[in-house]
Design goal:
Elements: E1 2-7, E2 13-18, H1 24-30, E3 50-53, H2 58-61, H3 66-72, E4 82-84, E5 97-100
Parallel strand pairs: 1-5
Antiparallel strand pairs: 1-2, 3-4, 3-5
This protein binds FE2/S2 (inorganic) cluster.
Length: 106
Amino acid sequence: MTKLTIVAFDGTRHDLDVQDGSTVMENAVRNSIPGIEAECGGACACATCHVYVDEAWTEAVGAPEPMEEDMLDFAADVQPNSRLSCQIKMGPDFDGLVVRVPERQG
Ligand code: FES
């Protein structure tokens, strides 16, 4: 089990124990965290699973792949630490990861 914290837009922290290999988006949906719509179900084709990676984790999580970067063009309020949460796969290297949900999707 790996720890993942998703901070909703209203500041509510959701501290989760998640399965390695699951994505941040899957865990957000599974735990009904508001603000992650994930309309395409994780196919990197909708940009409604946009999150901000906590500054302490941006280097470890890394930059988006080109396909994800193209989809991020459709997200609202994109910042340098923006990622699509369906493209972040949890594992031991990301134990303690913190992401924040933006005010709105798309
Ligand atoms: Fe659609 Fe992530 S769920 S791009």
